[in-house]
Design goal:
The chain has about 450 residues and is of the alpha/beta class. It is about 40% helix and about 15% strand. A hairpin with a 2-residue loop joins strand 1 and strand 2. The structure holds pyridoxal-5'-phosphate.
Amino acid sequence: MGITTPDDLKHMVLHFTKGKAWRNATMPIFVRGQGIYLWDEDGKRYLDGLAGLFVVQIGHGRTDIAHAAAKQIEELAYTPSWAATHPAAIEASKLVTSLAPGDLDAVFWVSSGSEAVESAIKFARQYHASQGNPAKTKVISRNLAYHGTTMGALSATGLDNIRAPFEPLLPGFLKVDNTLGVTDGIAAAKQIEDLILAEGPETVGLVMAEPVQNGGGCIVPPGGYWPELRRICDKYNVLLLADEVINSFGRLGHWFGSEMVGVVPDMISFAKGATSGYAPVGGLLIRRQLVDDLLDSEVGTFTHGATWGGHPVVMAITMANVTAMRDEGVLENVQANQGYFQDRLAALTDAHDNIAEVRGTGYFYAVEMTGSRSSGDELTEEGAAKLVNELMPGIISDAGVLLRADLRGRPKLVLSPPLICTRDDIDELMESVDQIISRAAEADIA
Ligand SMILES: Cc1ncc(COP(=O)(O)O)c(C=O)c1O
C-alpha cells in the first residue's frame, strides 16, 4: 500500500511522541486486530500486551460489538444528553450503575478519562458550594499519579515532566506521597489528614487516588489505606474520588477497583475498558445522595456538559461490551488466571538479576528493572533513559509484542493484556518478556 512514508505522517501530530520518532516513520502502522493480536501493514503479528492502552478488555475484532454500533447508527446516530435522552443511554446507565459498588447510583457520561476526572473536580466544587461551603475548592492527589491532560486533571497529576510545560497550573492542587514501598496504610493515609488540617478543612473539597496507581508502576495499596481515606474524608466533609480510568471494568478482576480495596468512594471516574476501545467513552459515577443534594439545592443543576456525552453509538457499544464481558465470564477469567500470571512473573524475576521487583494484581503488572538485584547496583539516570527511550522500542518490537516501557521512577515494563488471555496466552506473553529482559541486561547502557 505504501502508506508509511515520512511525508504521510507529517499531516498529523501524534500524542506524547517525540518529533524524532514521528518524523522518521519507524513506528508501526497497525491495520487489523483480532482477539489478543494486532497486525501491522507489513503483516507482522504482535501480541497486544498493553490492551492498546489499558483499554481492549474483551479483545479486538468483535463483530457483535460492530453490529450493535451499526444498528444504533441506523436507528438514531445522535441526540444530546441535555433536555432529552435515548434508550441506549438509559440502558447503559442502568447496567453500569448496577455493577458499581454501594450507592454509586448515577452516571455522568463524557468521552475520555480526562473529562471524567475534570467532571469530578467540577462536581466537587459545585456540590460543596451548593451546600453552603464555597471555599472547599482544594484538591489533594498523589505524587507520580497521572489523572489526565485537561487543566484540572493535569493540575491533579503528579508527574513533573508533563506538568512543567504548562505551568502555572491551577491553584489549590496539593500533593501527598503515593504508597510505593509503604506497609502501614494508616500512617500513609495520615499524611492526607495532616494536610487537610494544615490547609483548613473548610478549604479542602476533594481527595483523588487510584486504587492501584499506574504512575510509578502498579502500586498496590497497603491494607487499611483506603478505609482510612474513607474515614478521613467523612470526618472533614471532603469528597473521595477513586480514579478508575485504568482500574475498572475487570483490569483488577473486579468491575471496579474500589471493591478490591473495600471502600465505597463518593465518585468513580472510568473510561477505557467500558467500551473495550470500540468507541471513546468516559464516565463519572456519583453517589445518589450527592446528586440529589445538588439537584435539590437552590442552583438545581450540575452546570457542566459536553456535546458527545452519552452519545447513542457509544452507549450501544458500552452495553454490548459490558454485557458480553459479563455473559462470557471475562472477570472470572482474570480471577482464575491471575495467580498463574503472578507465578510466571515470580519465576521470571528469579531467572533475571536485572529485575528489581514485580508489582501488581489482576491483569495489571509492572516489571521494574535495575542494574543488578543481587549486588544492589542501580542503573544510572542516563543509562535508564537510554534503555527506555532509545533501545526498548526496538527490543519490544523484535519480541513480537506491544508493551509499554515506562521511565517514571525506575525503568519498567508495564503489562496489561486483554482480559480474555488464557494461560497459554500468558505463557506466550512471558516468553516475549523473558526475551526483552535478557536483551535489556545485555544492552550497552553503561
Ligand atoms: C488514572 C487515569 N486517569 C485519567 C486518565 C486520562 O484518560 P484519557 O487519556 O482518556 O483522557 C488516564 C489515562 O491513562 C489514567 O490512567
